[in-house]
Amino acid sequence: MLPAGLSVNAQFAGSLNRDTPQQKLRAAGIQAALAASGIHWGNGGATVSSAQIKAAAQDMHADSAHLIAPDVQAALTNIRTSPGGHWHTDFRAQATAQTMPSEIQSLFARIPVAGADRALGNAVAAAAQSLTLAVAGDAQGGSHGAFGLRLSAPAILQGRNGATLRVNTLALEDISQSGLGRVDMQLSGGGLPSLALASHRFAWAPDNLSGDAALSTHFDFGMLRDADVSAAGDASLHRGGFTFTLRRCAQARIGAVQVGRKTMLRKIAGALCTAGHAPLIASDAKGWTAAAAVNSLAAGFPAAAAKLSNGSGQFLFAGKDSKLTGHMELANARIADAAKSARFRPLTGSATATLANSRVTGEALINGPHRARIGRVAFTHDLNTGAGKADIAARDVRFDPKGLQPENLSPLLAQIREAKGRASFTGTVAWTRKSMTSHGMLDIAQLDFASPLGPAHALQSSIAFKSLLPPVTADGQKLDIASVDWTLPFTGTKAVFALSPDALRVESAKTNVAGGAASLDGMTVELGGKAAIHDTARLDNIDLAQIVSATNIGSKVKVEGRVKGVVPFTSGAAGFRIAKGHIESVGPGRLSIDRSLWTKGDVAVNGVEDFAYQALENLTVDSMTADIDSVDNGRLRIVFHIKGRNDPPKPQEARVGLFDLIRGTAFDKPVALPSGTPIDLTLETSLNFDELLKSYQAAWSQTLATAPAPKRGTKK
Description:
Blueprint: E1 6-19, E2 24-42, E3 45-56, E4 59-62, E5 65-82, E6 86-98, H1 101-109, H2 118-128, E7 130-141, E8 147-159, E9 164-175, E10 178-188, E11 194-205, E12 208-221, E13 224-238, E14 241-246, E15 250-259, E16 262-273, E17 281-284, E18 287-301, E19 306-320, E20 323-337, E21 347-356, E22 359-367, E23 373-382, E24 388-399, H3 406-409, E25 417-431, E26 436-451, E27 454-468, E28 471-473, E29 477-484, E30 490-499, E31 503-513, E32 516-520, E33 523-526, E34 533-543, H4 544-549, E35 557-572, E36 575-578, E37 581-593, H5 596-599, H6 607-617, E38 619-630, E39 635-646, H7 658-663, E40 678-688, H8 689-706
Antiparallel strand pairs: 1-2, 2-3, 2-4, 3-5, 4-5, 5-6, 6-7, 7-8, 8-9, 9-10, 10-11, 11-12, 12-13, 13-14, 13-15, 14-17, 15-16, 16-18, 17-18, 18-19, 19-20, 20-21, 21-22, 22-23, 23-24, 24-25, 25-26, 26-27, 27-28, 27-29, 29-30, 30-31, 31-32, 31-33, 32-34, 34-35, 35-36, 35-37, 37-38, 38-39, ...
Helix pairs in contact: 1-2
């Protein structure tokens, strides 16, 4: 029996070189020391009060790993051995080491997929440049190599840049080369992904490790920003092959997908579920695969101010060495407008994409209501250069009163009903890491539709977009409508316009009406609809006879002559208002108003009053003006000033009896107004223009409400 309280000190200096097919290990400049005290020996066992172990080296290589100046200091207490090879010790240790950042970056670059992220590789290299480990716990062993270990406090591994791996729980129990364990760890800081991994029970045997695993992580990777994944399942490592199978759907969220400085997608979320019986992740010597079904997919497209929801599909990615391939499918996705002012109705879409040779290629099909085919988008993206493009083709989209209608595509087209015709759109969106460009062309051919003014015929236009995201046209875009069947038909309607991200600018508009022409100077319409619209309508050589004959007073009012004028107007929150409108006659004319329009058949009270009726019944007009202004309470005031002469069909003269004249009763009864009597007449009238507009709008709205809804869309 050794003396009680024996102390032992030992030192070692030298190098280590182990080179076998299984392992290559080299260490130079090794300095090691052992100091143990309170050694007691007896009854087939021993106890040691404490032991200090120090080990350092100048340089150490373990296969491809290279450590510079590794240093380990460990304190062992409560060391006990007993018969049968059983032993126990409490331990506390600290270790430090350094690495070469260039070597770590090179090693990281060999990792499939993750190795392509240079920023992540730099963060790993910065963390590993200087490492510190602190660990404490107890360990025990038994016969036949049985081994157990348990942490008594969290083990912490820290990197130079603040990266920290914290192992909160670790318990291992190995019995004859097989065992059980549990672990709970977290990774954070230093530009590395935030990671939490826990396994309540894992087991190992020769060439096999399996158990449950719960994982949650927050990271940036490649084009992905602010990503979160939470998954729970079963992991297995068998003879170099690894699989992870989901127990339930994993939740994934990505804050943004960025190409250079451009955000292509944002707020992406969905559930990753088991695709059949395939594991989520599998790898072996032949490479790795990742497969899942995707449910409840949602995403935002900020450049297009659109959002996707309710998408479902699946994906399969595979990799070997640095080669990555994959295939993705998406179906039944809902695409909705996310702009402040609505531009289009919800659409549905499906898509397929293939990844090969660092290039993504695919196409998406876009459908309108009732599965009406709208168009397709073919796209490509190069992962190495960050460049790509999407070609949009919506060719020969057909509108039919019993099928697809413009209002099905956009609320901006809600006033266009019972459309029949076709339209086509082609466009391209291209991007690089630094910029994005887009352009397109919309062609509308011979479109007939019901407008608020009446049936419109043969609308046609070719609109050139110099940007699609957001929509911007070149200046001077033209739109033609052959005719509009209003009370007074419009013919040859033409408009010149331009669209900007915030407004529609009508540069000019002109139509032929009532034998003359009407035009607008030009106006700007904010797409948000808040700012008032200002413009001036100009009338040129308008035939008054056609206007009057189209009204319900055409049987009592006859007019000959033409007018011209300007009518400045404003349309906004306060309604439609006219200020200082002025109309004047073009050359002489004639006016005849049946007195029954005023008197409703009553006999004139006296001759003076009858003079006024006669003057309006047979009036040759030399000149006429009308001043138009909006006044309070939504009324429109019109002041007519007419100069001319009385011109009855047969010459007439006034005959007044002498005695009637003496008695003062000469004008108590009608007296003929002499032919040629000069007339200088001012008439002022007003009408409730706001109520008139409301009535017109209500009638149009009623027409929209009673119009039959499209039963199903037509396919392209």
